[in-house]
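Batch job 17 of 40 flagged for manual review because the log was empty.
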Amino acid sequence: MTGYYRVELDALSHLAAQLDGCAGEMRSAMKLLKDIGPKGSGSAELEKACDEFQDAWGYGIGLIADATGGVTEGLTQTQKLYAALEQQVAEGFRGPGKAAN
């Protein structure tokens, strides 16, 4: 029955790192758009579009970035728990007093 249950520990770690980076990128992008605002990008249309986007999406993207932080933390904890569980299961199959190879 091998192959029916497998946790990709490296993939979980990679996903958590990617999500963490995404949250920072969302906040950074919104800050850049806010900074452009009416300060003189050289285009009144671009400045208006940035302001409208910031007004419409700023709060929501902040909430998404905050939630992403919680998901990242949960994935990190899940990865650690699965790693510990896999180690315990491997030790259980080796039997008492047997060292890992």
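Reviewer: the log was empty due to a logging misconfiguration, but the result itself is present. The chain is about 80% helix and 0% strand. Unflagging and moving on to job 18.
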